[in-house]
Amino acid sequence: MSSGTDPGFAEEWRQLKERALARRATTAPSATSGAAVASPVAVDVEGPVEQARARLTAFRSRLALVPLDEGDGLLTVSFGSLDWICAFTDEDALARFARARDEAGREWTYRKVTGALLLDEVVPAAGFPCGVALDPAGPDPVMYPPLRGIVPDRAALDRGDIRPTGPLSS
Each residue of 103-136: pLDDT tens digit? Predict the structure, then answer.
């Protein structure tokens, strides 16, 4: 076809536009009623934000089990091009992680550390960008990335003075 347009598609598109305009006309507020039409998509942003803040506050005030690696450093795992310090709410969560790694037979040495200490002192002192992964092998894992509001600004990747390198930079 020389015109480059499929006549069947053009007709279908015309019908779709007509139906959309008809729907809009029936759902638009009338000039005389003054009634507002509810948005077709209501997005609750505050609820999830408040839930995340509450989880962060709870984590900061509780003790977490932080396993040690073979060199007696804190165990970290790589995920999404970032290292994560592994932390667990209890020994069952740590055992689930050990089974997931096929390491349930070895002895796991760990330290009990508050979430606040991990986020405020350990992450900045690590010497490399890292976050904290809470119960990473559990049914409800939580990741605390090194971002402002979670870790001190000096350790946050979004502190403003960091510029992307590589293909993203111009």
Answer: 999 999 999 999 999 999 999 999 899 999 999 9
At 128, the amino acid letter reads F
Q: How many CA atoms are closer than 13 Å to the CA of 156, on its beta-carbon side?
A: 12
User: What single string gives the DSSP state of each residue in 16-75?
Assistant: HHHHHHHHHHHHSPPTTT-PPPPPSS----HHHHHHHHHHHHHHHHSEEEEEB-TTSSBP
Q: For residue 147, which amino acid is it?
A: L
The C-alpha atoms of residue 17 and residue 95 are separated, in whole angstroms, by 58
Alpha-carbon torsion, ordered 94, 95, 100, 105, to 10 deg: 130
Structure tokens at 104: 């349930």
Decide if 133 contacts 164 (C-beta within 8 A). no
58-93 residue pLDDT tens:
999 999 999 999 899 999 999 988 999 999 999 999
